[in-house]
Amino acid sequence: MINKxxxxxxxxxxxxxxxxxxxxxxxxxxxxxxxxxxxxKNQLYLLYFNYWIKSDLNNCxxxxxxxxxxxxxxxxNYSSYYFGYNENLYSILSRNILLxxxxxxxxxxxxxxxKDVESVISIFWGLMTINERxxxxxxxxxx
Length: 143
Fold this sequence. Notes:
Layout: H1 4-9, H2 12-23, H3 28-55, H4 63-75, H5 87-93, H6 102-112, H7 117-127, H8 130-142
Helix pairs in contact: 3-4, 3-8, 4-7
């Protein structure tokens, strides 16, 4: 619940902008993407979790690291990122409107290294298209 005292401290101009955005009808594409993000990410976690629980009970906590590694592989067109990132990764990360240059993307990737694994997975998953998410899920089911 939002504290009414807090709301009264927010300038009216900011409140107007928040209200204007929250009352705007969103496109069907955006709603579909949001729903897909939620359900496909849960499906991805479930696939990895079930696989690693069944194969190695001692490593079940590391399944999120495996997801992140596989996402990075996919985003970098399965090229080793030891030697750098390729255009596919830059293209996908540039969907974030704040990341409009390779230099900004490289700095952002360094920042992501300090974040928790689940947040980084969510960021990458959110920047991917529904089709790209579908490819990852289908490849995961096959393995």
